[in-house]
Amino acid sequence: MLLHAYVRPRDRVLDFACGKGGDLTKYRKAEVGSYVGVDIALESVRRDAVERYNGGDYPFPARFVAGDCFTADLTTVFEPRAFDVVSCQFAVHYSWSTEERARRSFRNVAKLLRPGGHFIGTTVDANVLVRKLRAADGVAFGNAIVEVRFADAHRKKLFPTRDGPFGLRYAFTLQDAVTDCDEWLVPRKSFVALAEEYGLELVEFRNFHEFARAKLAGEDRSAFAAPGGTKDERSSSAGKKTAGKKAPAETARDTWRQSFGGRAPEDATLSEDEWEAANLYATFAFRLAGTPESAAKAVLNRAPPGAPEKIHPRDVLVLEGAA
Hints:
8-stranded mixed beta sheet; alpha/beta; 4-stranded antiparallel beta sheet; Rossmann fold
């Protein structure tokens, strides 16, 4: 749904942290003009992503790069303003381990995106993570499928500011996927403020629950959401304060039932634990500042994307940070 809102036919897409190319089918449906995937995992790119593209008869040309898009200078590989959309799904929080990495990621986006283009993605919702930490008895919380564990340094539920908003680490476990994987908080206000330094204007930042409710209600447009939340969010929060607070599990259950039309649990496509885990994430979209004239100039100056053709593993460009 996020791609549907921002990707247009013939768009040129740059996919940060593309992994095994799992979003290729979505880009086929979006009728993109070309696709480039970048990921740190060399074998995932060279073997899995290339095989998926070669076996899928995709109608657009693609290119794959193995490297860390949060440390490598991608402007040495791609022409400036070469892309209409930069997408980063479930990965931008790995760039917030240090300020240098976070800045490199935004610098790459700002240099490679055309004026008026969009930077979209999904990341952790730091507000929810901190709220759940403060409601927990210790430094860990979760359910049957997911666990988040903070270090003992956060036992007082505080976050020192000496290093700014970067390096706020926790361990993430998802059933049958990852165990104690290091991830980092992405404070929403700091995320938006840093993006603005690189000319990226916030279009929306919405928790998965809010995003899903809006889409299920038939919304098909992007609504501006300020760092403090949308007007509806603020009104909703104020109403909750007046009505009295609910336990986190009860709130998640009510939200789940509301979003899925109040249907019986056995008829839902997501379990309550899965729906509660989705609450840990948010969608975001930024627009690179620029005039229609500058956008048109960037598009007109591009070389044609070429025709789709098979990719050999040796054609994968290997950059700094590939592992």
